[in-house]
Amino acid sequence: MLEVQDVVARYGAIEALRGVSIRVERGEIVTIIGANGAGKSTLLMTICGDPRAASGRILFEGRDITHLPTYDIVRLGIAQAPEGRRIFPRMTVLENLMMGAVPTDGSHFEEDLERVFALFPRLRERRHQRGGTLSGGEQQMLCIGRALMARPKLLLMDEPSLGIAPILVRQIFEAIVAINRERGLPILLVEQNAYQALRIAHRGYVLAGGRVVKQGTGRQLLADPEVRAAYLEGGH
Amino acid sequence: MAYFLQQLINGVALGMVYGLIAIGYSMVYGIIGMINFAHGEIYMIGAFVSLIAFTLLGMLGVSWAPLALVVVLLTAIAITSLYGWTVERIAYRPLRGSFRLAPLISAIGMSIFLQTYVQITQGAKIKTLQPVITGGFTFTDASGFTVTISWIQILIVLLTLVLMAGFTWVIAKTPLGRAQRACQQDLKMAALCGVDVDRTISLTFVIGAALAAVAGLMATLYYGVIDFFIGFLAGVKAFTAAVLGGIGSIPGAMLGGLVLGLAEAFWSGYFSIEYKDVAAFTILVIVLIFLPTGILGQPEIEKV
Questions:
Q1: What ipTM was predicted for this assembly?
Q2: What residue numbers bound the domain in which A217 lies?
């Protein structure tokens, strides 16, 4: 349903993506692993049109979205839980979730809100609290919840486990699997925590220096000696 | 006591005019981080549109003041908003993503252009408006001092309060207000939520210009004289008010306007009227030194 074809993207003079091709099929969790600066976050942002792909094409449900403005891409059904969570700090939890629902017509708001609260009960308790006062883990829940409020057809997640207490990391990964199973929602997941990500992913890509250097199923990549040496040894 | 009260009344009325203009500076700064130096000129255009509209209505024989006021108010808001929108569209939007000083320079250019444009099309002479609303209440205390509240002052205060209430509601409760606050807090994330950022910025300029138009109308009624240069001083003072209240904060802009209006009125009343502008700018300097984020401003650092 998402196809990125040979995309090149730049941040200023830096070529962050040098011809990346990936795809995500219906119902899949696809993960992208790689070192810092490999271009993972840039790839997710380029899918959303910021920065724009300098060359190559991005297709979503067969439609070319390469040159659409960000808000149109989002309204077509691609929601992102971005790097650093980017919670609106001076808005309440509820208002943050309302912002997530901007691409919808609002008719399912209450129902969607209940689903998010069911997934992350903590958010219900804190719904009148300002986003900036939440802990890292709670902000991550809010970030995912906000993306779900858009009723997306595809969810992009950038480092959901970064800077979160270990006990919450498990909870977040469980939530990702639950979202994928229960809603059949395809997820494109960028992670530094390669072990956890590959364990829950159907397929994965390894990104290095702005290129895809390896791809396979989650299990294949977990067993791959090079992947193990580069991204898995010594942890998790 | 009566004298004090009189200055208080004058200061509040003046402060509300400053506050309305200051909101435009504050909102634009909050959302795109630039000082819109042409905003004072937008206020000046609001004053000119008001004056022209009053004159036209007079020629048409509309003499019932409430009707004339409503028509002029709506006309001033509509036309001035269009100017605000156009300025953003042609002078700032093309420069978005350019280096930080570029839109600032463009704003100064726009300010000079608008001044010159009005000077050429309307002439450089001072324009006067025949009093539309006259009279008011006069109280005399035991010692013989009188306090006057004019109808215009009452109108200024009431209109500003109504506008502020409506405006606060829009910002706090409506999707447009939420989108605006979201853009203010994180432009990129707002776009990722599906907000049309360009449209939200345009609307910010339109709202700022509409409030400046009301300020222009009220100043025209209050002073009865305008010229093409009034935007400069009013603009700088409203900017001072915005900084004083905490730039980016909307209640702050109103509060800053009030403080500045009161300071100016009391300074004129008790010291010297010639140096009232000095009082205003002394406040700006003191605030910048001791309270750089203003009274209600948010510190830049946020918990992430």
A1: 0.94
A2: 1-77+154-236
